[in-house]
Amino acid sequence: MESPAHIADVPAERPQTFRELGVIDSLCEACDSLGYSTPTPIQANCIPVALQGRDVIGLAETGSGKTAAFTIPLLQALMENPQPYHSLILAPTRELAQQIAQTVEALGAVISVRCTLLIGGVDMIPQAISLGKKPHVIVATPGRLLDHLENTKGFSLRHLKYLVLDEADRLLDLDFGPILDKLLRLLPSRKTYLFSATMSSKVESLQRASLSNPVKISVSTNNQTASNLLQFYLFIPHKFKDVYLVHLLNERAGQMGILFTRTIMETQRLALMLRNLNFPAIPIHGQLSQSSRLASLNKFRSRSRTLLIATDVAARGLDIPAVDFVVNCDLPQDSKTYIHRVGRTARAGKSGRAFSIVTQYDVEIWLRIEAALGKKVDEYKPEKDEVMIFANRVHDAQRMAISALKEQNQDGKGTRSKGSGRQRKRGRDDMDQEEV
Ligand SMILES: Nc1ncnc2c1ncn2[C@@H]1O[C@H](COP(=O)(O)OP(=O)(O)OP(=O)(O)O)[C@@H](O)[C@H]1O
């Protein structure tokens, strides 16, 4: 791979309309109908270059409209030369793939685009049937796509014209590496777009995607977080984490928040504890069935639950514009994950807040994150006396959560059976019936 040419960080003159970028009328109308009146900077920079037929590496902060930046050129190319299996978009999580497919369908409706979603955790047969209908665009997670390429009769991507890796640094990292290498060997030469808010600088990892003379377009600020995002940290002893968290949530009662934890077990424990305190909390993590994962997201999107307790399956890409705040209950292991997590709020020009709980055990990792952000984050220091008012209630809720988790694990399941007797007797609403 030649080393990517680097073009201007921000355009000197930003075009005011999609038409001025060279986008055809029908797609301009589609943008209009979605309320995209002005292209965002990444769109203004990427679309003309992509329309010239170049490979693109697109870097821009979270929530800045990267999905449309790669979808519009790809749909325009499809309009010019319609064919089945024209484009493939890969994403690292099922929920993100589903969200991208929705954007492709929304932007492509005016040109009757056929889009198929291939994700794990759900039946392969309806997906195989849908592939039989010769979709123009496939949006997929890597494992399931490979499964179809190997096992679905008559399906091949021999004639593929466009490949997009969304969250490209994640797809090209070690976890996905082997499967991606296998996939890429099955694809012909094509136009390739890599997009993310964070990118590996390792040329070897980018080489995997076999780009051809790519243009790197970066409209990221130095620290990759949106300027309308206010970030804070709380420095507190580990044993008070939950009580400070409850205080934080009480202050934001009724707002929509995503709470990130490091492990599935902690996600389950927190969801149970918060429900015991009557917070409308719902978990999402990789041990839930896919239908429960989607149900959790849908309840959150529709605001029937306002707190989503998540592992990093929800860290990247999810676009829920109403999210007011993010809490890092446990710090992420690396600064890239931090950037993606906090980017679940303050999207598309809206404001948002992110709080990180830092304990005596996390100082080193927090300093590393701050260094990567390139700035000092403000401390958020609630009055200790006010916080401790909740200590007893939090303690009770913790105990109940732990015993419910133990009970669940004794049932021999990773997820709770439909409401144990004790859970039901508490007589709350259907929260008790939800999987944790
Ligand atoms: N030109 C535009 N005008 C107004 N809103 C837009 C425009 N383009 C995209 N949006 C909206 O901005 C939001 C964020 O877009 P998107 O999800 O593509 O961000 P992203 O850059 O991919 O973020 P992440 O890095 O977190 O994946 C979406 O709700 C999208 O509908």
Automatic annotation (TrEMBL):
Its EC number is 3.6.4.13. Residues 16-44 form the DEAD-box RNA helicase Q domain. It comes from the Eukaryota. It catalyses: ATP + H2O = ADP + phosphate + H(+). Pfam families: DEAD, Helicase_C. Residues 403-436 are annotated as: Disordered. One of its GO terms (cellular component) is nucleus. Residues 228-388 form the Helicase C-terminal domain. The keyword ATP-binding applies. Its main location: nucleus. Residues 47-217 form the Helicase ATP-binding domain. A motif (Q motif) lies at residues 16-44. PROSITE patterns: DEAD_ATP_HELICASE, HELICASE_ATP_BIND_1, HELICASE_CTER, Q_MOTIF. It is an enzyme of class 3 (hydrolase). Residues 415-426 have a biased composition (Basic residues). It is found in: Nucleus. GO terms for biological process: gene expression; ribosome biogenesis. One of its GO terms (molecular function) is ATP binding. Keywords: ATP-binding, Helicase, Hydrolase, Nucleotide-binding, Nucleus, Ribosome biogenesis, RNA-binding. ATP-dependent rRNA helicase required for pre-ribosomal RNA processing. Involved in the maturation of the 35S-pre-rRNA and to its cleavage to mature 18S rRNA. Belongs to the DEAD box helicase family. DDX47/RRP3 subfamily. Interacts with the SSU processome. This is ATP-dependent rRNA helicase RRP3. It comes from Talaromyces pinophilus. The lineage of its organism: Eukaryota, Fungi, Dikarya, Ascomycota, Pezizomycotina.
